[in-house]
Amino acid sequence: MEILCRKKLTKEEVAQFRRAVDKDYYFEMYYDELPIWGLIGRVENREETDDPKDYKYYLYKHIHFDILYNKDRVIEITARTDPHSVLDLTEDKEVDGEFTYTAKWKQTDILFENRMDKFSQTSLPHHLEIHWFSIINSCVIVLLLTGFLATILMRVLKNDFIKYAHDEEAVNDHEETGWKYIHGDVFRFPKHKSLFAAALGCGTQLFTLTVFVFLLALVGVFYPYNRGALFTALLVIYALTSGVAGYTATFFYCQLEGTNWVRNLVLTGSLFCGPLALMFCFLNSVAVSYSSTAALPFGTIMVIVLMWTFMTSPLLVLGGIAGKNSRTSFQAPCRTTKYPREIPLLAWYRGTVPQMAMAGFLPFSAIYIELYYIFESVWGQKIYTIYSILFIVFILLLIVTSFITVALTYFQLAAEDHKWWWRSFICGGSTSIFIYSYCLYYYYTRSDMSGFMQISFFFGYMACICYGFFLMLGTVGFRSSMLFVRHIYRSIKCE
């Protein structure tokens, strides 16, 4: 038996530990990347009454570790607390405690390569068949809804093409209506083109980052409990893909006849990283004030700063230069008129906010079931290992986001509203609002978080993640709408 430490608990510390024991707090340790869990104490009520005075609170003082090894490799480790070695925390008084531990080593034939099989099996959902059934059910519902909308949209478009193509000699006798009527305005460049191009650049980079992370996950790079691999991969891949953001933003900005591409490049580099860096500084300061191990050390922060300085920024600039040199003119199927047409007065449900609610709900319904398992993995004890299901859900999310944005863009143009550029981007990214709303639901109904630090970490980092989703899905929505708008206006004869 080894003595770990001797500690005299004050009245305040005894009260804190008593509350922790009452709420079933547990400790979490790691040994050679293997997790160890255990309750920190227990509550007894020998009188079996509801009177709080009859409850006794005990804090475990001794932990025994059972360690299995194969040659020079640790295969498995478990921890057991001694129910007879406890501190009585029932009364508000100072308590002297001596905390100890023991360890027992035992040889095993399990290979080091197979030591994670146990965790992979136990980390799966308890009812995998129900999990798969829920995903398939979600896919069927979403596909039926999208198929229904696709059928309506194709029939309406077919009727429009027939109407516009039939009897060209009689076209002048009828006043044009619908989306053909605004052919001279539909390709008019949006306001705040520099911000728009920067958002597209950041969204494209985040989409590329997500695809690479999925590829690494599917080939088995992120095995359970390899805590640093995922975060390291995110940092490195984000730095390496910064050239994608620079190229996309500058190329599109020059297509929109922008002149100050350097300012656009600076905006692209700070549009996502700026809020993320500010949020990180705030949350890391909170962790430092609480003396928490969640605070990154100064050396790690300096490595991230150096990576940004010598890798991310140069690649961003190189991508911007490549985008500027390879720019082409914006080839619009229709000639844009000098003066924009006045947009008619539209019904309330055609406004931006109702359209966002409609555009975000359907994609959110496709990922709602999977969100619970992801949140339990990130903010709870469970470990997520079914990356194949997650990849299917991600593909479904992209398909549904693309389709619903295209459908809403068509209805907007049919109502003779030609300001679709920003609308398609915002509607595509509106799913992130529903995801953040789910954060509120999860926090109050599913999690046992409390205290300023947990609240700030949960809502702070989830805000950054949802902001990234907004940029990525907004880019997907706009790109899909652009392809659709180019196609329909290329298919008709516009005078």
TrEMBL record:
Gene: LOC104232790
Primary location recorded for the protein, binned into one broad class: membrane
Family: Belongs to the nonaspanin (TM9SF) (TC 9.A.2) family.
Keywords annotated in UniProt: Endosome, Golgi apparatus, Membrane, Receptor, Signal, Transmembrane, Transmembrane helix
The keyword Manganese is annotated on this UniProt entry: no
UniProt topology in membrane: Multi-pass membrane protein
GO BP field: protein localization to membrane
Coiled-coil parts of chain: none
GO CC annotations, alphabetized: endosome membrane; Golgi membrane
InterPro entries reported for this sequence: EMP70, MFS_trans_sf
Subcellular location: Endosome membrane; Golgi apparatus membrane
Organism expressing this protein natively: Nicotiana sylvestris
The organism's place on the tree of life at top rank: Eukaryota
Name of the protein in question: Transmembrane 9 superfamily member
Residues passing through the membrane, by range: 130-153, 195-223, 229-253, 265-288, 294-318, 356-375, 387-408, 420-443, 455-478
